[in-house]
């Protein structure tokens, strides 16, 4: 456990209300800022809009708590939303037990929301008063409460009450009320986000989804008039278009259709409506649906946790319960599920500020979390508790490595395998792409080896993944973060020929690598885009990348973009020798604004945003600083060609750490015309770029030609290169893209369809 984030040991005083962590107060009452970052601030969260980034370097921030101010307490989204009536309703009284204010619409041990039966004559946030909760003849109180928000101008507007100083016994009683409401079906977690839904009608897409699902053996549930049958999609009969479902129930009761069936895909829950069907013993046969409803249920894929992983934490409100140690059942980059006891008194919205995860082999990671879900009591007397979690900065690298390896156990990072990786690049023909030769890469081997060994320790910038077997590395795929909000996918290579002995799934290698590398950036809170330069001549790349982005663009989505470009090589010592009628120098502030406006007019927003070509990010200052903090190079400058003081064209010139990409993708230049005849200034700009790179000991760089070319190409002394597709997708599409990859690869198993 990190010494920067010690476990809290002192019991907070008067912690029964909505709380946030406070830094150690100074003599004038203001909070002292300390080192480290905490983005979720205490026992109960306010809205994410109001969650502070509190910095700390000692246990003070974990021991001192204060009630939320009224404006933030009003946004406390903890507990459960209630919709009971009559005997199932919980009522709230203020002042006296019989002075009923109205029915409770949301409740937790820290906040109460009430639908008042009549307008309030007066409500003030400055005083506290007795609060009573009642349900079906039982009463809790007096509790200590205060109004946190009222809208006096709106009749019968909801009223919020902040509860302060709730005792352990009172908390147990409140959660008892909520447990009864859950059993009666009149309560839902208030903190649970609503799923995103869409409708899939493309017949080929539906066939692909079900082919992948039946190959995966994922679970499904049939619902019919209150009857639930748990099933597995056994086969997709492509010739007849029939889905064959199997249940393990000894005497299944499918009943008569219509049915609603939910089934889990890679990262989505799908729902289909079945109007007809037939049964044969434990089998149900249904037609392939014409439309499919998709419910996105997770941003991150979750997998079973390794045996022996436990979570240790104190209850943020009632530390007298002592240190809890609970088994972790599954996890992802941003969440986990643990097996708890009902007496733990956990509820949605609760924020344990420090959770220590025991990973096994003596490893520990400190995270902070938010309770998102608590199940009803199971047959073994336990409850399942789902949390969203975020590692402390000191443990971020260890957490990402652990989760990555757990989620993709067939893969690993490449440190220690540099020679094997170099051999794979030779075998796969990677070094011959774009007319290159293996000899051209030898000078970069030492830089590549050095960076490969460091990359695993810097998950904030790199993910170099390989799929090893007994005969060596079968395939590799890498990600790096060259821009503020974008990760670059690159250096994909696969051993030619047959897969290794014992591998039953032809697509497993590429699927595992794509899952590991594309999921890796999801641990980055600044992750908005994926960028790649992909060779469409490769059938797999064309189907996996280009066709996917084109489909999104055809549907009008602004979240994907692809177009063919040309990667041309320029040598730093090959100046054109021309006398240019332009002066070239760094861009002024007004020229940067002109450039940003010009790019925004000519290119879609995803291009502008992903490549840091907005006005505020053109200099890439924060990116440069981040790479520099890890001892690595990343730089950009903007050069402008002027004639008589008028800007004609601009060059965006970039440099990256040697070895980060073997084709030196991070040493690239883009040219933009700022006037109608601005391309005439391109040769002057490229000569200036040559001098810029030469001054940084770069013998060559790439010019990324994104226009139709023209006479300037020959004038600039550029060398022809490959013409890949620039490929950009939003981070919002990554779960869907990985579902697409899963369908492409799992669908290659032929045994599960006939």
How do the helices and strands line up, and which of them pair or pack?
Layout: E1 19-21, H1 60-63, E2 65-67, H2 70-73, E3 80-82, E4 91-94, E5 100-107, E6 111-116, E7 129-135, E8 138-149, E9 159-164, H3 168-183, E10 187-189, E11 196-200, H4 203-216, E12 219-224, E13 227-237, E14 242-246, E15 259-264, E16 268-274, E17 278-280, E18 283-287, E19 292-296, E20 303-304, E21 310-313, E22 324-331, E23 335-340, E24 355-360, E25 363-374, E26 383-391, H5 396-407, E27 412-413, H6 418-428, H7 445-455, E28 462-469, E29 472-480, E30 486-494, H8 508-519, E31 529-534, H9 539-554, E32 560-564, E33 566-571, E34 583-586, H10 589-602, H11 605-610, H12 621-629, E35 634-643, E36 646-656, E37 668-673, H13 682-694, E38 700-705, H14 711-715, E39 725-730, H15 734-746
Parallel strand pairs: 30-31, 37-38
Antiparallel strand pairs: 1-2, 3-5, 3-10, 4-5, 4-7, 5-6, 6-9, 7-8, 8-9, 11-19, 12-13, 12-15, 13-14, 14-18, 15-16, 16-19, 17-18, 20-22, 21-22, 21-24, 22-23, 23-26, 24-25, 25-26, 27-28, 28-29, 29-30, 31-39, 32-39, 33-38, 34-35, 35-36, 36-37
Helix pairs in contact: 4-15, 8-15
Protein name: PilZ domain-containing protein
Biased composition (Polar residues): 1-30
Organism: Corallococcus exiguus
């Amino acid at each position: 456990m990190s010494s920067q984030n010690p476990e809290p040991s002192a019991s907070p005083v008067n912690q029964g209300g909505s709380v946030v962590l406070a830094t150690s107060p100074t003599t004038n009452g203001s909070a002292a800022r300390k080192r480290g970052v905490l983005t979720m601030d205490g026992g109960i969260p306010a809205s994410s809009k109001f969650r502070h980034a509190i910095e700390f370097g000692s246990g003070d921030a974990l021991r001192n708590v204060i009630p939320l101010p009224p404006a933030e307490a009003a946004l406390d989204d903890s507990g459960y939303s209630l919709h009971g009536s009559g005997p199932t309703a919980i009522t709230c009284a203020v002042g006296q037990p019989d002075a009923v204010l109205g029915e409770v619409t949301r409740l937790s041990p820290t906040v109460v929301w009430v639908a008042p039966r009549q307008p309030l004559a007066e409500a003030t946030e400055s005083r506290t008063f007795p609060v009573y909760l009642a349900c079906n003849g039982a009463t809790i109180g007096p509790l200590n409460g205060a109004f946190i928000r009222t809208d006096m101008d709106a009749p019968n507007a909801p009223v919020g009450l902040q509860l302060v100083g709730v005792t352990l016994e009172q908390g147990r009683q409140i959660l008892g009320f909520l447990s009864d409401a859950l059993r009666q079906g009149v309560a839902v977690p208030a903190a649970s986000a609503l799923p995103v839904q869409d409708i899939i009608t493309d017949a080929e897409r539906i066939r692909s989804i079900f082919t992948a699902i039946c190959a995966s053996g994922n679970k499904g549930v049939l619902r019919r008039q209150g009857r639930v049958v748990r099933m597995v999609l056994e086969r997709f009969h492509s010739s007849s278009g029939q889905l064959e479902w199997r249940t393990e129930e000894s005497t299944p009761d499918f009943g008569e259709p219509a049915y609603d069936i939910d089934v889990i895909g890679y990262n989505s829950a799908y729902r289909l409506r079945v109007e007809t069907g037939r049964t044969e013993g434990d089998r149900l046969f249904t037609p392939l649906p014409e439309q499919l409803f998709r419910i996105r249920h997770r941003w991150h894929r979750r997998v079973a946790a390794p045996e022996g992983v436990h979570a240790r934490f104190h209850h943020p409100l009632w530390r007298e319960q002592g240190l809890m140690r609970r088994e972790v059942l599954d996890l992802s980059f941003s969440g986990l599920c643990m097996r708890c006891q009902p007496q733990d008194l956990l509820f949605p919205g609760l924020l344990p500020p420090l959770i220590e995860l025991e990973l096994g082999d003596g490893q520990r990671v400190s995270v902070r979390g938010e309770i998102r879900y608590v199940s009803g009591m199971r047959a073994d007397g336990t409850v399942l508790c789902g949390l969203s979690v975020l590692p402390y900065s000191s443990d971020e690298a260890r957490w990402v490595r652990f989760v990555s390896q757990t989620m993709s156990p067939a893969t690993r990072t490449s440190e220690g395998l540099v020679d094997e990786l170099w051999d794979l690049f030779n075998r796969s023909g990677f070094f011959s792409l774009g007319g290159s030769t293996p000899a051209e890469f030898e000078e970069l081997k030492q830089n590549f080896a050095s960076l490969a060994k460091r990359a695993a320790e810097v998950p904030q910038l790199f993910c170099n993944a390989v799929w090893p077997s007994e005969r060596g590395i079968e395939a590799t795929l890498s990600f790096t973060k060259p821009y503020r909000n974008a990760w670059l996918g690159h250096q994909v290579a696969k051993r030619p020929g047959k897969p290794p002995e014992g591998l039953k799934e032809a697509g497993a290698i590429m699927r595992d690598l794509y899952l590991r590398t594309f999921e890796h950036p999801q641990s980055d809170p600044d992750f908005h885009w994926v960028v790649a330069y992909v060779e469409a001549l490769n059938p797999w790349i064309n189907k996996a990348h280009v066709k996917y982005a084109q489909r999104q663009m055809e549907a009008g989505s602004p979240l994907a973009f692809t177009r063919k470009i040309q990667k041309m090589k320029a040598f730093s010592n090959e100046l054109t020798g021309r006398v240019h009628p332009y002066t070239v120098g760094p861009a002024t502030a007004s020229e940067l604004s002109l450039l940003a406006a010009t790019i925004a007019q000519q290119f879609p927003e995803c291009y502008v945003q992903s490549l840091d070509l907005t006005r505020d990010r053109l200099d890439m200052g924060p990116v440069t600083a981040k790479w520099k903090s890890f001892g690595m190079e990343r730089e950009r400058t903007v050069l402008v060609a002027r004639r008589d003081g008028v800007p004609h064209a601009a060059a965006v010139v970039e440099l990256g750490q040697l070895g980060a990409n073997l084709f030196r993708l991070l040493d690239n230049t883009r040219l933009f015309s700022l006037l109608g005849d601005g391309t005439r200034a391109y040769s002057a700009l490229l000569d200036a770029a040559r001098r810029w790179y030469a001054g940084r000991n770069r013998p060559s760089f790439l010019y990324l030609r994104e226009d139709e070319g023209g006479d300037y190409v020959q004038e600039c002394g550029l060398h022809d290169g490959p013409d890949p597709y620039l490929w950009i997708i939003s981070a919002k599409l990554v779960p869907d893209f990985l579902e697409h990859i899963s369908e492409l690869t799992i669908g290659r198993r032929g045994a599960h369809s006939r």
